[in-house]
Amino acid sequence: MKFVSFTILIICLLGLTSLKPFTPPYVYETDLLSIEFPEQPEIQTQQVETAIGPLSIITAMLEHKEGEDGQFLYAAMTSVYPDSLINSDKTELHEKFFRGSIDGAVNNVQGKILSEKIISLKGYPGRQIAVDYGSGTAVINMTMYLVHNEVIFLQTITNPEELENAASAKFYASFKLKK
Predict the structure, then answer these.
(1) Is residue 13 pLDDT above 50, yes or no?
(2) Which pTM was predicted?
């Protein structure tokens, strides 16, 4: 009996040594949003020249090694557009704005739209798309919202064999709009 108890104890101890330590999620927070990343993302601000002039884009991005947890990348990006050009109150401009954003993103990665859905959150318009990247290498999932004249892009790049995975679902479910 003592031998069986000792064997069970050894097996349990060996099992504990193979566990990864628990890492609490990193909460990325701005005046506009909060979202949980599995670890601390790299945060950058950059000025980008566009057809409407320079835009400041703030990006929080976390890359994962070889699709760890089914994800290659997690990202949250925000940008403020001139209020005179686009605003969530200007409903007549939404379709053109989102179409341009989606087509630009897809063309930028030379991808193919797999799905597209009109969404909203707290009355703010949005779009949700899935894009084939690299002819089946990965799937880019993107959710975007227009909040007044601020745009939010949430993105994951996923292993196509693990499209429906808990890590991606948790990332998107953790998103909170503060306005």
Answers:
(1) no
(2) 0.84
